[in-house]
Amino acid sequence: MSETRVLVVDDSRMMRTLITSALEEIRNITVVGEADGADEAREKIAQLHPDVLTLDVEMPGMSGIAFLEEIMTTRPLPVIMFSTRTTEGTGDTAEAKRLGAIGCFPKPVGPPDMMKKVIEDVAKCIKTEREAELTKAAAAKDDGPVPPIDWNGRPLLIGCDSSGLDALKGFLTRLPDNCPPTLVALQNMDMGAIYALLGELSGKVKPALEIASDGTTLAQGKIYFSPGADKHVVLDTWPGGHCRLMERDPVGGVRPSASLLFASAAKAAGEEAVGVVFGTGGEDGERAASVLGEARSHAFNATDDGYRLKRGEAVQAVSASQLAIEVMRACGK
What we know:
This protein has 333 residues and is of the alpha/beta class. The chain is built from ten helices and 15 strands.
């Protein structure tokens, strides 16, 4: 994987040093510069052309949220937000994601284990975004739709967080109109963001798109999306299964949970299921791929260099440009 160049923006010199030192310990990530606010950041972006920006929410002068909006309007760039308040469910997080931030994280302060976990999650988010960019580049060479399949009866389950949306959209645009019944858990995405996603996909995706409801019968040629972040989505039985909505606390900080969805598919379909995790996924995404792979179903999840297919003890590398082809192959006779 090629080097990812990061610009760190924070009004605290100590925090800039902490974030920079931590990120530079991660392979293939290089911090190319630092800025103490929006004015200096504009200059550094023009000079250094970073691949990713980390941005503090609570900066003096122009706030991080206001600067994020400016960036997305004038010169779109992958941005990760840091704040004492950017935890799931806060207004800062919702607004940052609405504006286009690829990730929102608490500042890496506190006990060493907590700091390490935050930086590891940030590193995964950065690498996933970089992978999405490489996917787009590869798609320029191999972006054709996948031919119609002779469906083998397996359902397709997808888990996706905000950092994986670009990869998810590219994947869905390649699916044939007779794709397997597909149920998508969009982690922590509210209905406004989901409707915006469906609007963006309209006319670009061959299968029918639908918001799932409790009891929805899953049918071939349709892609069903979780209805907001208030409930989990699961598969009740297979074949002839339905989407079920569950009122339950978030799992690993996310709702709907990919791991709950994949576990329900493993229980309902056994070996006869296919799952894909887009984005960093966090602990929930890792559990999702693990539970489905251990059930000897096909489980695809993102890696630094593409994707990994796990089925039982068997593991196979899959390039980003080949993901749609391999997933449809797993769903075809």
